[in-house]
Amino acid sequence: MKLFSYWRSSAAWRVRIALSWKGIPHGTVPVHLIRAGGQQHSESYHEVNPQQRVPALEDEGRVYAQSLAIIEYLEEKHPEPPLLPVDFAGRAIVRQMALLVACEIHPLQNLAVLNYLRGPLAQGDGPVAEWVRHWIGQGFTALEELARRHGDGTRYLHGGAVSMADLCLVPMMYNARRHHLDIRPFPALAAIDAHLVTLPAFSTTRPEAQADAE
Questions:
Q1: In the prediction, which pLDDT does 156 show?
Q2: CATH superfamily of the 2-81 domain
Q3: pTM (2 decimals)?
Q4: pLDDT, tens digit, for every residue of 103-134?
Q5: Residue closest to 101 by CA, chosen among 6, 13, 160
Q6: d(Cα 201, Cα 113) in Å, to the nearest integer?
Q7: Which of 141, 160, 171, 191 would give a disulfide with 10, using CB separation of 3.0 to 4.6 Å?
Q8: Across the chain, what does the average pLDDT equal?
Q9: Please, what is the Cα angle at 64 between 11 and 203, to 5 degrees?
């Protein structure tokens, strides 16, 4: 199994956590998203992932892209320890929270989106930073309430165990701090994040611990 990753990609970090949580042996192929115009745009990587994004996972001759699709694949192939609850309702709620981060918050701060704001739309660093903070804050407002409804507000987003939603939260909290978002309005998310980063699957996969970190 081989993971194509970039050290600071929050989507790739989700998959790194899943692989670590499940104890799945794998190799890592760094794909630098900035150097030389972005290695994700190279012909060789285009053959791996036509979308030219990370992460991508190669396993048994097939390549899978999109972080949540990869995590679901790992969950089905390696169900223990689980990242989804056993009940249908719980699974739907966990997926709801994971998708809130991966499909509502994250795309609006993707490198390609920010480069388009800075380039063709000629926006400066200040407006771009405010754009990022606005969309993270809006998503976190909803996620904070969901965390209080479906978790204990201190350790996990849902129930009493790590789930796919938590894999999405921690990288996004990292991004929020990197973009100087005030996280004080989100005490449940901050408490859950503080607990999760003490777990080896989260701490050993953090961006700064990657071989390609800068």
A1: 98
A2: Glutaredoxin (3.40.30.10)
A3: 0.95
A4: 999 999 888 899 999 999 999 999 999 999 99
A5: 13
A6: 29
A7: 171
A8: 96
A9: 35
Query: Is pLDDT of 144 > 90?
Result: yes
Map out the domains of the chain as residue ranges. 2-81, 88-201
Q: Decide if 10 contacts 175 (C-beta within 8 A).
A: yes
Alpha helices in the chain (DSSP H): 10-21, 43-48, 67-77, 88-99, 111-118, 125-150, 164-178, 187-196, 200-203
CA 92 to chain centre: 18
* CA atoms within a 13 Å half-sphere pointing along the CA-CB vector of 90: 15
For the beta carbon of residue 111, count every other beta carbon within 10 angstroms.
Answer: 15
Fold of 88-201: Glutathione S-transferase Yfyf (Class Pi); Chain A, domain 2 (1.20.1050)
Encode pLDDT of 56-101 as tens digits. 999 999 999 999 999 999 999 999 999 999 999 999 999 999 999 9
Q: What residues form DSSP beta bridges with 57?
A: 3, 64
